[in-house]
Amino acid sequence: MLDASIADSTIVLALPRGRILRDVMPLVKRAGIEPEAAFDDPKTRKLLFDTNDPNVKIVRVRSFDVATFVAFGAAQLGVAGNDVLMEFDYPEVYAPLDLGIGKCRMSVAEPAAMVASDDPSRWSHVRVATKYPSITRKHFAARGVQAECIELSGAMELAPNLGLCRRIVDLVETGSTLKANGLVEVEHIADITSRLAVNRAALKTRPDEMGAWIERFREAIEDVSDADAA
Amino acid sequence: MLDASIADSTIVLALPRGRILRDVMPLVKRAGIEPEAAFDDPKTRKLLFDTNDPNVKIVRVRSFDVATFVAFGAAQLGVAGNDVLMEFDYPEVYAPLDLGIGKCRMSVAEPAAMVASDDPSRWSHVRVATKYPSITRKHFAARGVQAECIELSGAMELAPNLGLCRRIVDLVETGSTLKANGLVEVEHIADITSRLAVNRAALKTRPDEMGAWIERFREAIEDVSDADAA
């Protein structure tokens, strides 16, 4: 038996698992989408959920996979950080809205003990542990530095202490994880927030419907901004 | 303040996070390594742990990252599935021991509804969702089939139902997840178990010490086999 059946008229919304979901759900609900009860059951093994709208399903996947689901049309809509969107740089993904949540930054960090004697303007080659090899290579190539990337999916902040490499490119929110590992930020690469991601083919073939969804998310964000301003 | 200081004499053991850890820890303990209490605290944010042996630290990372930590010498020892070892195929990693845990298989699966009309021997090009693009391409290339891989880190079993692609390559343990998603296995790629992974440079520069650790893990496995046989 399948988790749910998918018709041509279905809109699949891909949402990221993990901490960011807490910030995403109020927006999704203000846009009029209420997932079935199983969505809030921490023990569920379901990945695809019904909602109050018979035409809308939610799929909950890793944040990196959100972009791929949307790019290949497995989801028509998604919520993904611009870190993920920049890393894949899928031409099939249109990101019309900054949702203003999941704020953090992408930075280059290195051991505090190195900083005094290290001049980034003199780098010609760097070895970097990161989840973002494509962004990292582009960032350094733009100023003529060749970056050798060691791809890790997590625990980047351990890499310098364990001798994997001296520098990392990672997301930084408060900076407390870096600090706890004796690291400091030495370059800022980008500011990160979550975006609404839209499959371009769906937007072309179902413009009214997809346009209406974008509008509902836009209003959902404005509701928050208004509440913040009041 | 750092999580722990790393001396040249330290042995770092990289262990995979998640479900497999339950099966790994009894072996690690029989090999004489007892992690500090924080290791069992589900709320800890620590990644690097002290043990009863002042020369041994444990780092807990994603299974894919275990291979990278060992290959680059950030860990001298690790536990990783041969799925991960095959995918990366790092020449710097030596895998002398099958630990006999984490048993599953890697398979090609497709919708049950397709099977009757689908003849794998006539494929010339397949589009496959997988976490293992390198293994997948090699598997298909060996019989002249070109595989276009869509890389996902999870939720592969959703891909056929959502129209991402019709086939997936994934790990299968009991088969219940495939079944729940209307998929069936059509090809077996490899049998998977966890292996002891050893950094080759460490084995060359510290042969007695590393050799002794391999021996301790070998004895730890034999203890289990003896208990099973009794």
Can you put this structure into words, describing what you see?
Two copies of one chain form a homodimer. By secondary structure, chain A is α/β, with parallel strands linked by helices. Chain A has two domains: 11-102 and 193-229, D-Maltodextrin-Binding Protein, domain 2; 104-191, 3-Layer(aba) Sandwich (D-Maltodextrin-Binding Protein, domain 2). The first copy, chain A, has helices at 20-30, 63-71, 82-88, 112-115, 133-141, 176-180, 200-205, 207-229; strands at 11-16, 48-50, 56-61, 77-81, 93-98, 104-111, 125-130, 146-151, 167-172, 183-192, 194-199. In chain A, strands 2-3-1-4-11-5 form a six-stranded mixed beta sheet, sandwiched between helices. In chain A, strands 8-7-9-6-10 form a five-stranded mixed beta sheet. In chain A, helix 1 (20-30) packs across helix 8. The A-B interface holds A 1-3, 6, 12, 45, 47-48, 59, 61-62, 64-65, 68-69, 72-75, 150-155, 157-159, 161-165, 177, 180-182 and B 1-3, 6, 12, 45, 47-48, 59, 61-62, 64-65, 68-69, 72-75, 150-155, 157-159, 161-165, 177, 180-182.
Layout of SSEs?
The structure is a homodimer of 230-residue chains.
Chain A: E1 11-16, H1 20-30, E2 48-50, E3 56-61, H2 63-71, E4 77-81, H3 82-88, E5 93-98, E6 104-111, H4 112-115, E7 125-130, H5 133-141, E8 146-151, E9 167-172, H6 176-180, E10 183-192, E11 194-199, H7 200-205, H8 207-229
Parallel strand pairs in A: 1-3, 1-4, 7-8, 7-9
Antiparallel strand pairs in A: 2-3, 4-11, 5-11, 6-9, 6-10
Helix pairs in contact in A: 1-8
- In terms of quaternary structure, the protein is homodimer
Number of helices of chain A: 8
Total strand segments of chain A: 11
Corresponding CATH superfamily of the largest domain in chain A? Periplasmic binding protein-like II
How would you state the average pLDDT of chain A, rounded? 93
Amount of beta strand of chain A: 25-35%
Largest sheet of chain A: 6 strands, mixed
Unreliable parts of chain A:
none
The largest inter-chain interface, given as chain pair and residues per side, is: A-B, 37 and 37 residues
Using the coordinates shown, work out and report the CATH topology of the largest domain in chain A. D-Maltodextrin-Binding Protein, domain 2
Describe the global form of chain A: elongated
Order of strands in the sheet with the most strands of chain A? 2-3-1-4-11-5
Rg result of chain A: 20 Å
Level-2 CATH architecture of the largest domain in chain A = 3-Layer(aba) Sandwich
- Helix and strand succession of chain A? EHEEHEHEEHEHEEHEEHH
Structural class of chain A: alpha/beta
What's the number of domains of chain A? 2
**Helical residue percent band of chain A:** 25-40%
- Briefly, what CATH class of the largest domain in chain A? Alpha Beta
Distance between the termini of chain A: 49 Å
